Amino acid sequence: MLSRLRDIFRSDDFIPTSSVFPGIDADKIAAEMKLAEKGRARGAQNQPPTDMTEFDHVEASIIQRIEESRRKGLENYEINRRVYNERLTRAGHASEEVNIEAGKAMNAFNATVHSHRNSIVDARERLNETYRWRNLFRERHRLSRPAQEFNGWINVISVSLVLVAVEAGMNSYLFSSGNEFGLLGGLLVAVIVSATNVGMSLFLGHLANSVNHRNPLRKLIGAVFFLGWVALALAINFGVAHFRDGLERGLEWRQAAEQAVPSMIANPFGLATIESWLLVILGCMISSFAYLKGWHADDPYPGYGRLSRSLSQARAEYDAQFDDVLHQLVTHRDEAIAGLQAANEDVRDAITEAIDALFGQSSLSAHLQTFLEQCDLATAYLLARYRDENRAARETPAPATFGKAYRFPEFKPESIDTSRKEMAESEARKVNETVQTTIKAIFGQFESARKEFSVTDDVELGGAKPAPVQPVAAQPALMGAQ
Question: Domains of the chain: which residue ranges?
């Protein structure tokens, strides 16, 4: 837009007022033309003759010399007057050009809004569909509470490793007895036993929360997993305790391992040492902690936590998409408005210059009159210098033409149309009105788009979806431009 407007109001090369009319130094011209010498020389020869009825060649050259300067001044005057008139004429096209460019800016912003509307539809639909599915899930399973926050599997794994480390560290001494590798061998066995105990309890605890489900079959499955955990936890920890008892009786590791299970089946509570009972108690405690961690790793109601996280993810994706779209719309809006405001300033400055040109034209006309009078006076002065020297050197009377004055033909400049000032000022007002109307329309379109795109809360709360963005009504001048 700015390049087109600047082409309209591009600066013209013209001569400043002070240089339009060439200066006329009569004494310098007289010296250059040697009028005194020529006057005396021709007077001594009694030239021109007394009966001469026309200007002689010296007088004619004086007139021609001044006429050249006069013609140059008039040419410069016409050039400058044409420039001033063209500036005033171009001011009349300003509002038309701004109307066209403002309409283009508005249409371009509308196109941007529609383009971004299409890009945000998928994210918004996924969010709304996920929200409706979450609500249906809560109604179907009679849930009125929010889902338990999920801390992530990294947290679950970290807690599990801590439990393994605690149990292995406490059991390493108890397993070192009878181990040919001593405390290091006992630590290795303790780590294996603890990892099995914790891992099994964590896994079954996570599956056992199906007992919270409203479906009877899911409840039964959850109960089976719970009973399975109880059985396995007792079997593992009592089996390990019987294995240690075998070591205490002096059996080899392989023999103790082979007799541990039969001994446990035959007499599960028949442990010989307090250390073995400590193994059972400690193992069951760690198993219970791991089971509870698995139970509460996610929301206790099966599927509720995962669905809640899907909704949170959909909302985050929509928010990110909305922020990106809004940022791009703000950028396009600000660029369009900055261009319009810059165009407004350029046009107003150019129209102000055009108005100044009107006053410059008046000043130019005043200088013209002064210059024309100077041409006549310089001609009279130079003719008088030549004639006076000629008369003083003559023996015969001077011709009658020496008393004849010379004046150049009268030049009447065209009158200045002062109504153009009102026209230029009117154009400036039209331009400003068009720009302000377009800026207001762009702001309205942006606000409408922002409201339409940010319908998350309205949809999630069951409200009606806002109507699509409609172009903001513009002034007649702007509509005509579009």
Answer: 2-118+323-481, 153-297
